């Protein structure tokens, strides 16, 4: 019970009021970023951050690049730091579960932020994550140079 209340406290602390302009700025910045490797963009919704903390990747990306994954993959920031995250592919959909919440917390991700997931290596499944934030004061803006 104590663990559950801590989860909700920390999640509610990350909720933020975002203006349409801030949201649009983050989306446009993410759209301008075109990695050379296969990639997908995801705008973080409340359900990806709070309720159960499961995040689904776009089906077209999952089908082409993550089919057959059932276990832990690595999410890597441009600075090289990595987090193990459970990824399950089933029925044309891939979702992150265990480890995803820790990744969002440790990187101060919030509603409206846009993550670009870039496939670096497909044998051991490493996805580089570039974050485009709706609020720059929420933390460092991770982008490839």
From TrEMBL:
Pfam families xrefs: B3
Keyword Oxidoreductase belongs to the record: no
Limits of the TF-B3 domain: 40-135
Primary localisation category: nucleus
Subcellular location: Nucleus
Xref: InterPro entries: B3_DNA-bd, DNA-bd_pseudobarrel_sf, REM16-like
Keyword Aminoacyl-tRNA synthetase belongs to the record: no
Cross-referenced PROSITE patterns: B3 (PS50863)
UniProt name for this protein: TF-B3 domain-containing protein
Species the sequence originates in: Gossypium trilobum
């Amino acid at each position: 019970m104590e663990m559950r209340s801590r989860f909700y406290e920390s999640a509610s602390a990350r909720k933020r009021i975002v203006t349409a302009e801030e949201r649009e700025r983050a989306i446009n910045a993410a759209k301008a970023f075109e990695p050379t490797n296969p990639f997908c963009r995801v705008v973080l919704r409340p359900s990806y951050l709070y309720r159960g903390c499961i995040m689904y990747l776009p089906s077209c990306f999952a089908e082409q690049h993550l089919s057959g994954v059932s276990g832990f993959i690595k999410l890597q920031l441009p600075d090289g730091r990595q987090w193990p995250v459970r990824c399950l592919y089933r029925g044309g959909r891939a979702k992150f579960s265990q480890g995803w919440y820790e990744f969002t917390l440790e990187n101060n991700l919030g509603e409206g932020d846009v993550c670009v997931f870039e496939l670096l290596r497909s044998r051991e499944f490493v996805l580089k994550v570039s974050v485009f934030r709706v609020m720059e004061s929420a933390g460092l803006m991770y982008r490839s140079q």
